[in-house]
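dumping this here so i dont lose it
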């Protein structure tokens, strides 16, 4: 096995706990990577402004990935690449989600738009992103510059049923995948966490076989296909664990720190 020179981690369900906190153990583990000269960065379904709180405690220097890897930005917030969902695909997604009775959020690189401020998970997301949403009427929802659409529901089975239908309706015009049981994300086409892994490895001149990736959800599987080794979190579902090289502890038990210790031991 080749020595690992780059580690890329998902954020929610992976790098942070259920209450969206970095633990001292995870922070210390990332700093151990820095000390050993191993690069580290993060990729998430979050918008760029929802990842800014990671930069300082983790001493991040590399570009991070937002919107499931379709946007690349520097730790200081400056944009490197920003892609939007085609307006026609936005219409398809909004129509299907609306018809299924799923609440809808829209994200641009700078804004978070919701139809109702008291709908499920708004308060939770507000704490996670450290950002206030903008309340917008249905007829005022924009179609241009949308980087992510989120279907939100407390009915997990409903979202699970929507996912394949939305994939079919969108075709190759956009990606549709759940980032949590309660979030169904639509993001720009041809870009995902796997393409983010490739982009960062290429920037650093590191072969993919020398990249380790860590995640917990199905939207992390494109990373698993690209990295030399992959770690599924202990809180991941069986479908994710089966695709990983290793399974680590849960995000409540410093699973990322355990994965990093394993990576360091392999070196």
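and the seq i came up w/
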């Amino acid at each position: 096995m080749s020595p690992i020179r780059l580690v890329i981690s998902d954020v929610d369900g992976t790098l942070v706990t259920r209450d969206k906190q970095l633990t001292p153990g995870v922070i210390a583990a990332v700093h151990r990577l820095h000390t050993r000269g191993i690069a580290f960065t993060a990729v998430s379904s979050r918008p760029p402004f929802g990842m800014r709180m990671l930069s300082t405690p983790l001493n991040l220097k590399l570009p991070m990935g937002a919107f499931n890897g379709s946007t690349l930005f520097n730790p200081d917030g400056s944009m490197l690449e920003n892609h939007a969902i085609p307006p026609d695909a936005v219409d398809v997604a909004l129509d299907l989600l609306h018809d299924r009775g799923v609440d809808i959020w829209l994200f641009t690189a700078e804004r978070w738009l919701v139809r109702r401020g008291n709908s499920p998970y708004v308060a939770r997301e507000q704490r996670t992103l450290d950002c206030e949403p903008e309340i917008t009427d249905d007829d005022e929802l924009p179609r241009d510059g949308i980087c992510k659409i989120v279907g939100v529901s407390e009915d997990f089975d409903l979202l699970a049923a929507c996912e394949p239908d939305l994939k079919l309706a969108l075709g190759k015009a956009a990606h549709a995948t759940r980032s949590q049981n309660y979030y169904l994300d639509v993001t720009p086409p041809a870009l995902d966490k796997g393409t983010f892994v490739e982009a960062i490895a290429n920037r650093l001149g590191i072969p993919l076989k020398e990249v380790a990736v860590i995640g917990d959800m199905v939207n992390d599987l494109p990373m698993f296909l690209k990295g030399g080794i992959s770690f599924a979190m202990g809180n991941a579902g069986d479908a994710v664990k089966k695709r990983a090289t290793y399974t680590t502890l849960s995000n409540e038990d410093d699973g990322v720190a355990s994965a990093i210790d394993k990576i360091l031991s392999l070196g």
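Residues 87-187 form a domain with the Hypothetical Protein, Haloacid Dehalogenase-like Hydrolase; Chain: A; domain 2 fold (CATH 3.30.1240.10).
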